[in-house]
Amino acid sequence: MRLHGVPLSIISNRDKIFFSIFWKSLFKLQGISLCFISNYHPQSNGQTEMVNPTLEQYLHCFTFDQPKRWMEWLSWEEYGYNIIIHSSTKLSHFEAVYGVPPPSLISYVLGTTKVQAVDDLLHTREVILCELRHNLLEAQVRMNAHADLHHHNSSLCLYELMSGQVEP
């Protein structure tokens, strides 16, 4: 709400909190439509189900060697997700919402400021982003290797089926 205002609708998995008199009254007075999805049918909310694995992968990459510090990385995860150009829209989420490309981060050279707090903050940011790039590259290599393994096996099975070497 702090960035985009009150939503027009909220999709819920029938969490009991949304059935309380407080929330029902608040939603009604604010003109918010509450849409419930079927329990145990995550495909009902496909958009969320598509985003969640991506965000989980991001968090895994961010917190690979420090899993208990995931909260510290959440804003960087949000930033990273929002600046990536998505294949379906050919835009980043940032650009789709604000109409302009996201601002880029300027690399920081250690010691270029005399303010220690600024130096510490920007140095920490550079370390975080360097770790993130490293972890994302490692994850990409793992995912590509995994995909190649399955792609090869699928092609082989399809070839064998088509050539009549094995029964379906």
E-strand count? 2
Arithmetic mean pLDDT: 76
Q: DSSP helix count?
A: 5
The description of the largest β-sheet is:
2 strands, parallel
Percent strand equals under 5%
H-E string: EHEHHHH
Silhouette: extended
Q: Radius of gyration over alpha carbons? A: 22 Å
Attribute tags:
2 strands, 168 residues, mainly alpha, disordered C terminus
What does this structure look like?
The chain is mainly alpha-helical and 168 residues long. Among the domains are: 1-40, no CATH class; 105-168. The protein has helices at residues 21-30, 46-62, 70-83, 93-98, 116-163; strands at residues 9-12, 33-36. Helix 2 crosses helix 3 and helix 2 (46-62) packs across helix 5. The longest helix is centred in the C-terminal third of the chain and has 48 residues, at 116-163.
What topology does this entry show?
Layout: E1 9-12, H1 21-30, E2 33-36, H2 46-62, H3 70-83, H4 93-98, H5 116-163
Parallel strand pairs: 1-2
Summarize the structure.
This protein is mainly alpha-helical and 168 residues long. It is 57% helix and 5% strand.
